[in-house]
Structures are given as C-alpha cells and as structure tokens.
C-alpha cells in the first residue's frame, strides 16, 4: 500500500484577474522509503502541490477544488483540522528553499527544535533537548551543544538548512517533503545537503517528495520522477527511463536545454515561447503551442496521462498513438 | 593573442570593517579581492566561477569603478581606467546584472530605457534614435513593436534581453555579465546563453561571464578562472580546467555539479567537502582552502601559494598540484 496516494488534486487561486488553476488535476503516489522527484519550471505547480498537502495554501485566495490525499488512512485534504495537525509535523514534515525565512529569527534554535516534540510527544523538556542535540549531531553540525542556544542569524546558509532538516526530522516522519531545499545554496554545500538527505533516508527509511527545477539533482537522488507542466503531470517514470528514454516532447526539450549535456559551444536547444497563462481557459494540450511535434488535434483534445510502457506514463496524444 | 581588451594587474579591493553602529573602524579589513590578475581578449569569453562571497561580484564592481580598488591596475584597450581619465571608457565597458527585475527602471518603457544611452553618450542625432532602438531590439530577439511597454509586462527572459540590449546600445568592446542566467528557468536560460554566444561571435566582444554554475560556464567560456576567497586559484582553457581540474578546490567544485544522468551521477565519487566555507573576515593563514582540503600539509598552513604554470596551459595556485593524482 502506498504511503501517500494523491488523486486528482486541483488547487486554484481566485484573484481579481481571474481563476488561476495552479494545480489542475494531478495524481501520484509514494511508497514507503521511496524518493519521488517533482520537476518543472517556475509556475508549473510543484510548490502548490506540496503546500496543498501540508495545508499551507492561503485560503482565500487559494482553494482546493477537488481531490484526495490519503496518508496513513487519513485524507489530508478533507479530514478535520485537528486530525491533520496531528499528522503534520509528526508523520509528515516539510523543508523549504529559504531557511532564513522559515526559521523564527527571535527564537533560539533550541526552542524551535523542541517545538515539534512539545506538541506531538509527551516527553520532558530535558529529554526533548537531548533529542534535539542528537538530531543536530545527526545532520552534521559540529559542536552541537554550543550551537543549541544560538539564533538563526548566527548560522551560515548551509547550517540553517541543516537546522531546518533537523527540525523536520526530529519526530522521525514517514514522509519528508523537500521544496527546493538546495536551490539557494552553493554547489559544494548543496552536495553536503544532498548527501545528508540520502544518508538519513537510508538510516530511517523515510520517504521523500523532492521538488526541484534541477534535473541534475533529480538524477542523483530520486527513484521516480514526475515532470510537471502548467499544473499537470506531463510524464512520470523511473529515474533511469526519464533520462535514457524520455517520451513527452516537453521532457525531451527540457533535457536538450541543459548546457552540461551538450558539446561545448554548440547552440543550445531552447523551447520557443513561454508557459501558458493558467487563468485562461485550457483547450487541448497546454504544451502544444511550444511543441515542435504538435499536430492540429493536439490543440483540440486534452491529452490524458496514460501508460506508454511499463511504469512509464506520458500525457501526449502522439506518444500514446505510437507516432513519436 | 594580440593586446587583450581588458587587463587586471594584481588588483586588490579591501573593505574596512565598521564595528558597532558603523561609526568607528575596527581596524579589520575584508580582502574581497586580494591580488587578482586577469585578461579578456576580443571575441573571447572568460568564465569566472566561485561560490558566494568569493569576490566574483566585487571584481565586476571594481572593474566598473563602482567600488575603487585599493591597489592594482585595470586597463581597457591598453589605457588605465581610473574614473577620471576619459569618460569614454564607460561606453566601451558595459555590464549586465543578475536580476533583470531590479536593474530596469519600472517607470521607463523599453524605448526610454534603450534610448537613454544614445542620448547620454550623444551617439547619434535625436532623429535617428528610434531607428537605432528598433534595430537594437531586433538584434536581441525582441519585436520592435513592443517598444512602448514597461518592464513589468515582460517575462524574466525578455527582461534580460532588454538589459542586454541596453548594454549593447553604446557599442561596448567588453561586456561584464554577472550571473545573467541564474534567475531564469532552464528553457529560458538556454535562449539567453545562445544570445550571448551569438553577440560575442558577431561583435567580437570580450565577455567576462560571472557565474556559480559550472556547467553553464563550461558551455559558454573559452577560458575559466576559479576564485576562492578573493584570489584566483586556477585558470586556463575551459576544457582543461573543468575537464581535468588540478586545484583541489576546483576538483571539489566540479565533482559537486549535479549530473543529469542517473548512472553517471551514482557511479562517480562525489567529493563532499568537510566543514564550512571560511569567513572572509578571518581567512585562514596560508592557503585559504587548506582547512577543507584533503591534501593539505603543514606548508599549506604557512604561506599562500601563488599561481604557477600547470599542465595544459593553465595556472594553479597549489603547491601540491603536481603531486596529486589526476581525478578519475
């Protein structure tokens, strides 16, 4: 049984300029211990998906229009708030891109680290501090005893990200949602944090939902990948298949645009145009206007996500018809 | 190579550190640039890489005299830039910044932004300005019909095109681009990289391309310089420096690039540096990389090594460069 099963999630934002359908019917599941990567460009709905699961979509203007998200036998989207709160921060935790804005600048990190324990577990403050200390050590902070009473501004960017990971993992969650956790970091620090997430997953067996725009990070870390475009899933497959045999024209185009895969100096492939305005009515495939393989029917019929080979699905009519 | 267009000789930019509320000097200095020498030739792209705080952006700002160097010489076309000599140098040296949202005036239409340099530098009669602006817009791939729009009406990639057009308007010889694509999505990034490559080819510009993303730098650059804490630790042909890095810091940087290929990504040995990057306020004695270096010896803690010729036409600032076996 999957750890998390999301079915037909739709989240939109009701703004003065119309209804923006940020997430427009996506379904996926995560098995225990699995790392699922969600990739896509700005505005593709990656973060809104994560925030919907964590109950972090501001309502209004946001609204979860439909869908279910079954986790531990509970529908995260429709259960009573008390039930959801008892799962979030305990069985389900999230880390964010910018650790400076997600740590409270007024509180010592010791207070922030023990907060989840104070809320979810009935243990003494001294025992909670011991857990905090052990957790800081586990995420690779040297001299944790001395650092426990420091404030967030006294840490470097990489250290703050470690503190945030320690805070998320202190309750030993079954699922960690990581929303671009290394995007703001330097490459050498990014390598440290990715190594840390990999190690913690091996040791604790937690599942990870890893959101990123960087295909390179996905290749090194994830078991399975979900490629999002304009609020929908364009393609999903095992990490090997996504890189060695991408089917959806958008996934292919993305790969061709990465500089490191191309010989030096060659003209990079670039996708013409820009992503669609999600407040306009959708007709046909959202990628069709930018797609080099589009035929007239692509502009009329909405492509469903369907299996194109074992454990490999793509939302493209031409791929499904065997034409690409 | 003929006389390089842009030359930096032993440039140092030190900032005094103010304590308390900024009234008194504490006597400490941050050595943002500590003896940097670099050249950029015509039609050449020099990539400058390094992590946050290594001095990349200070170098760009120093060359443009937005901050004054503490010592050293900066030459443009063989004549020193010192802020006063000839105002002409500002026309020959232009800059593109990272954030196209912040570097364009939101109250200026595209036309106003692009026309201003022509008027300031009196490059052509006023009557010709509209035609020049239209040609400029077309040259960076923006339809001239959009000239009366404001920056907020454009996407990030289009804004970066406007910023590039504004820099090109005055016909510079050298362009400095500080992280011009790091705020953009992959597919848009590719468009801007192609545009920069075309501009360098067609106009024979010298481009100093500053970035933290090594795969982007490798794609665009002829030569690469790697900075660590205010100094260049390795420089040379891009293929050599990134393909066969010699300095231990460059090796770690190269191995940390995420590779978009699952087999390669899992098969290779990623060098994960221990500890934290050093504070520029209190740099370690000797080689500034030694606290995190797997190859450091006692000598490395004493004196900072200077750049010395290494294999493949490069220069490396590491006393052990020749002894360390090549990376796999």
Summarize the structure.
Chain A is of the alpha/beta class and about 325 residues long. Chain A has helices at about 45-55, 80-85, 100, 110-120, 125-140, 145, 155-170, 185-205, 215-220, 240-245, 250-255, 315-320; strands at about 5-15, 20-30, 35-40, 60-70, 75, 90-95, 175-180, 205-210, 225-230, 230-240, 305-310, 310-315. Chain A has two domains: about 5-90 and about 170-320, 3-Layer(aba) Sandwich (Rossmann fold), CATH 3.40.50.300; about 105-170, no CATH class.
**Cα-atom radius of gyration of chain A:** 21 Å
CATH topology annotation of the largest domain in chain A:
Rossmann fold
Main β-sheet of chain B, in a few words? 8 strands, mixed
Supply the number of structural domains of chain A: 2
Strand/helix succession of chain B = EEEHEEHEHHHEHEHEEHHHEE
Layout of SSEs?
The complex is a heterodimer of chains A (about 325) and B (about 325).
Chain A (H helix, E strand, L loop, with lengths): L3 E12 L2 E13 L4 E5 L6 H9 L7 E10 L2 E2 L5 H7 L4 E4 L3 H4 L6 H12 L4 H14 L5 H4 L9 H13 L5 E5 L7 H18 L2 E6 L2 H7 L2 E6 L2 E7 H6 L4 H9 L48 E4 L2 E3 L2 H4 L4
Parallel strand pairs in A: 3-8, 3-9, 6-7, 7-8
Antiparallel strand pairs in A: 1-2, 1-4, 4-5, 9-10, 10-12, 11-12
Helix pairs in contact in A: 4-5, 4-7, 5-7
Chain B lengths: L5 E14 L4 E17 L4 E5 L6 H8 L7 E6 L2 E2 L8 H4 E4 L13 H11 L8 H11 L16 H13 L5 E5 L7 H18 L2 E6 L2 H7 L2 E6 L2 E7 H6 L4 H9 L5 H6 L40 E2 L5 E2 L12
Parallel strand pairs in B: 3-8, 3-9, 6-7, 7-8
Antiparallel strand pairs in B: 1-2, 1-4, 4-5, 9-10, 10-12, 11-12
Question: Would you mind describing this structure in some detail?
Answer:
The complex is a heterodimer of chains A (324) and B (328). Chain A has 324 residues and is an alpha/beta fold. Chain A has two domains: 4-91 and 171-320, Rossmann fold (3-Layer(aba) Sandwich), CATH 3.40.50.300; 103-170, no CATH class. Helix content of chain A is 33%, strand content 24%. Chain A has helices at 46-54, 81-87, 99-102, 109-120, 125-138, 144-147, 157-169, 187-204, 215-221, 239-244, 249-257, 317-320, and strands at residues 4-15, 18-30, 35-39, 62-71, 74-75, 92-95, 175-179, 207-212, 224-229, 232-238, 306-309, 312-314. Chain B has a domain at 247-328. Helix content of chain B is 28%, strand content 23%. Chain B has an eight-stranded mixed sheet, sandwiched between helices. In chain B, strand 9 (223-228) and strand 10 form a beta hairpin. In chain B, helix 3 (110-120) crosses helix 4 (129-139) and helix 5 runs parallel beside helix 6. Chain B is globular, with a radius of gyration of 21 Å. The mean pLDDT of chain B is 87. The A-B interface holds A 41-42, 142, 156-159, 186-192, 194-195, 213-220, 239-240, 243, 253-255, 257-262, 264-265, 267-271, 274 and B 51-52, 155, 157, 185-191, 193-194, 197, 212-216, 218-220, 238-239, 252-253, 255-266, 270-273, 275-277.
